[in-house]
Specification:
The protein is α+β, with helices and mostly antiparallel strands. It folds into three domains: 289 residues, 2-Layer Sandwich (BirA Bifunctional Protein, domain 2), CATH 3.30.930; 127 residues, YbaK protein; 95 residues, Rossmann fold (3-Layer(aba) Sandwich), CATH 3.40.50. Helices cover 25% and strands 29% of the residues. The strands form eight sheets. Strands 3, 7, 8, 9, 10, 11, 12, 21 and 24 form a nine-stranded mixed β-sheet that branches. Strands 16-14-15-17-20 form a five-stranded mixed β-sheet, with no helix packed on it. The protein has a five-stranded mixed β-sheet with strand order 28-27-29-30-31, sandwiched between helices.
C-alpha cells in the first residue's frame, strides 16, 4: 500500500476528550473517528487490525469445534419477554418500533436469540453437543461511554454458545472454550489473567473473565502472587472474621459536633475506624434499602444486588427526606430507633462496642452491640476486597487493573427453558438443553493490545495483529536513486508480506513521526546511501538498534520475521 494514496489522517496533537493511551493513539494514528458519543467509524488502518484480531479468534474457534453463523442485529421483543429480560435488562437496551408497531431491540447479547434459533432444530441427543458462534456488532446504551472503544455503545463481539445434554457436558464445553480463549489471547500476545467473575444479568454461577493487565483498565482484580487464585473485585470474597471477647459496655450517647465522615468521628473519639459502623441509605426501584457495614470498609454493590435480587441500574441513593421518614438522619444515621431493619454485613454481628450515628445531628452512640441494641438482616459478605486481604486459599492478595477482553459463562438451562429449547434423550424423554455462553470483545481487545504495547512516540504492534508487517520509507522522493531502490524493495516485499511504501513528498521528520505513531514492526529506510544499495533496517520495538545493510539483507530479515 502506497501512503501517498492511503486514507490515514494522522494527528499531531492529542485530542482533548481522549483520556487513555489507546484512545489517544487510535485517533492520532488515523485508525478511528468519532461519530457521536460512544460510536466510532473504523478507517482503513483500524479496520485491518480489527480484521486481524477477528481472524485469530475465528481460527481458534474453528480449531476448538465452533461453527460460524451470522444472525441479525435486530432481535424481536417476544424472545426477550420469554426470558423476562425485556423489562429487567434495563436502560442499556436499545429499543425500536417498526411501522407496524412491532417492538425490537438492537442486540446487546444473544442468549435468547441463539436459544430461539436452535429450539426447533436441535431436538435429539444425537445432535449434541454443538457449538455455534458469530461475529456481530452489539449495542448497549452505556450510561457513561468513555475510553474510546474500551467502553462504547457500539462494538464488535464474537459470541458463541454451546449446547449439551446435561450439566457434565456443559462443564466440558465450558472448559473447552476456556482452553480456546487461552489459545486466542496467547496468540495475540496479551499479558492476561483469568479471574473468577460474577455472572450478573447472564445467570448461572459459573464464570471466568479474561483480563488484559493495564493500569488504565476499568476493571479491578485481586490475585495471589502465584496466581493460584484470582477474582474480579465484584466477585472476590472478603473472608476476615472479627474475634472480640470483650464484655459489652453500657450504651452511651455522645456529642460529636461537625463529624459527618467516619474519619472525622474516629479522630474525634480517638478510636480506630474499624470500631465504627457505616450506614448506607439506598433505594431499589424506589423502595428503601438500608445497609450497615464496618466503617473502615466499602460496600460491594454487586454483592448487595445479588443478595436482594435487584438490578444494579435500579439502585440509587435515597434522598435525605426519605431517610428521615424511617427515623434516621443523613450524616448521623444508625440502626437504633429506625423503623426499618438494616441489611448487615456479617462482621457487624461479630463487632463489640462500636460507634454508630444516633439519628440526631451532631450525636453518635458508643458501645453499640448487635442483638442487645438492635437487630438486622444478615447479608453475609457485603464488602469490597482490598489489597492485603486473604484469598480463599489462605494467601494475601494484590490488586491490579485490567481490560476485560473475554468472558465465559455456564448458563445451565435458564434460556433453553424460557425459549422452549428441548431435546429427546435416548429413552425418548424431553429435557432442556444445557447452554454455555462465550464472548470475546474484538474491538475492546485492540485497546488492550495498544495499552500494553506503546511508548511516548506511538503504537508498537505485535506481529500477530499488525495492520502491515513492514514499512519502507523513502527519505527524499526527489532523489531518483532513492525512489528506484524503494520501489524495488516494495515490489519484492509485496510477494510475501503486507507492506507500506511511504512515497509521500513530505519532510523526512513527518514521515518518521508517522512511522513511529502507527507502529509497523519492521522498518526499512531508504536514504543517502541508496546509490550503494545500502538501507537502514530497524525494529519498531527497539528503534535505536539500527543497522545499515544491503537491501537484499533487509528483505531477507523481513522474510524470516514474517514466517
Amino acid at each position: 500500500m502506497r501512503l501517498s494514496r492511503y486514507y490515514m489522517p494522522t494527528l499531531k496533537e492529542v485530542p482533548a476528550d481522549a483520556e487513555i493511551a489507546s484512545h489517544q493513539l487510535m485517533l492520532r494514528a488515523g485508525m478511528i473517528r468519532r461519530t457521536c458519543t460512544g460510536i466510532y467509524s473504523y478507517l482503513p488502518l483500524g479496520l485491518r487490525v480489527l480484521m486481524n484480531v477477528e481472524n485469530i479468534v475465528r481460527k481458534n474457534m474453528d480449531e476448538f469445534g465452533g461453527q460460524e453463523i451470522r444472525m441479525s442485529v435486530i432481535q424481536p421483543k417476544e424472545i426477550w419477554e420469554a426470558s423476562n429480560r425485556w423489562a429487567k435488562y434495563g436502560p442499556e437496551l436499545f429499543k425500536l418500533t417498526d411501522r407496524n408497531d412491532r417492538e425490537f431491540c438492537l442486540g446487546p447479547t444473544a442468549e435468547e436469540y441463539f436459544s430461539f434459533l436452535i429450539k426447533d432444530e436441535l431436538n435429539s441427543y444425537k445432535q449434541l453437543p454443538m457449538n455455534l458462534y458469530q461475529f456481530q456488532v452489539k449495542y448497549r446504551d452505556e450510561k457513561r461511554p468513555r475510553f474510546g472503544l474500551n467502553r462504547s455503545r457500539e462494538f464488535l463481539m464474537k459470541d458463541a454458545y454451546s449446547f449439551d445434554c446435561d450439566k457434565e457436558g456443559m462443564i466440558k464445553s465450558y472448559h473447552n472454550m476456556e482452553d480456546c480463549y487461552d489459545a486466542i489471547f496467547t496468540e495475540i500476545g496479551l499479558d492476561y489473567v483469568k479471574v473468577d467473575s460474577d455472572s450478573g444479568q447472564m445467570g448461572g454461577n459459573l464464570s471466568i473473565e479474561f483480563q488484559a493487565l493495564s493500569e488504565t483498565g476499568e476493571g479491578e482484580l485481586l490475585y495471589t502472587e502465584d496466581l493460584s487464585y484470582a477474582a474480579n473485585i465484584e466477585k472476590c470474597p472478603v473472608s476476615y472474621e472479627i474475634k472480640d471477647d470483650s464484655q459489652m459496655l453500657e450504651l452511651e450517647e455522645v456529642h460529636t459536633p461537625g463529624t459527618k465522615t467516619i474519619a472525622e468521628v474516629a479522630n474525634f473519639l480517638g478510636i480506630e475506624e474499624s470500631k465504627t459502623a457505616k450506614m448506607i441509605f439506598l433505594s431499589n426501584a424506589g423502595k428503601p434499602v438500608f445497609v450497615m457495614i464496618p466503617g473502615d470498609r466499602e460496600l460491594n454493590l454487586t454483592k448487595l444486588v445479588n443478595f436482594i435480587g435487584a438490578n444494579e441500574y435500579d439502585i440509587d441513593m435515597l434522598p435525605a427526606e426519605e431517610i428521615e421518614k424511617h427515623g434516621c438522619v443523613a450524616g448521623f444515621g444508625g440502626p437504633i430507633g429506625a423503623d426499618i431493619k438494616f441489611i448487615c454485613d456479617k462482621r457487624i454481628m461479630q463487632m463489640k462496642n462500636f460507634v454508630v450515628g444516633a439519628n440526631k445531628t451532631d450525636y453518635h452512640y458508643k458501645n453499640v452491640n448487635y442483638g442487645r441494641d438492635f437487630e438486622g438482616i444478615d447479608g453475609g459478605d457485603l464488602l469490597t476486597a482490598v489489597e492485603g486481604d486473604i484469598s480463599p486459599n489462605g494467601q494475601p492478595m494484590k490488586i491490579r487493573r485490567g481490560v476485560e477482553v473475554g468472558q465465559i459463562f455456564g448458563l445451565g438451562t435458564k434460556y433453553a427453558e424460557a425459549e422452549g429449547a428441548y431435546y429427546l434423550d435416548e429413552n425418548g424423554k424431553k429435557n432442556p438443553i444445557w447452554m454455555g455462553s462465550y464472548g470475546v470483545g474484538v474491538s475492546r481487545t485492540i485497546t488492550a493490545i495498544i495499552e500494553q504495547n506503546h511508548d511516548e512516540f506511538g503504537i508498537i504492534w505485535p506481529m500477530s495483529v499488525t495492520p502491515f508487517h513492514a514499512i519502507v520509507t523513502i527519505v527524499n522522493t526527489g532523489d531518483e536513486e532513492q525512489v528506484a531502490l524503494g520501489e524495488k524493495i516494495y515490489a519484492e516485499l509485496k510477494k510475501f508480506c503486507d507492506v507500506m511504501l511511504d512515497d509521500r513528498k513530505d519532510r523526512a521528520g513527518v514521515k518518521f513521526a508517522d512511522r513511529d505513531l502507527i507502529g509497523i514492526p519492521l522498518r526499512i529506510t531508504v536514504g543517502k546511501r541508496a546509490s550503494e544499495n545500502i538501507v537502514e533496517f530497524s525494529y519498531r520495538r527497539t528503534p535505536k538498534d539500527r543497522q545499515e545493510i544491503s537491501a537484499e539483507e533487509a528483505i531477507e530479515i523481513i522474510r524470516k520475521e514474517v514466517k
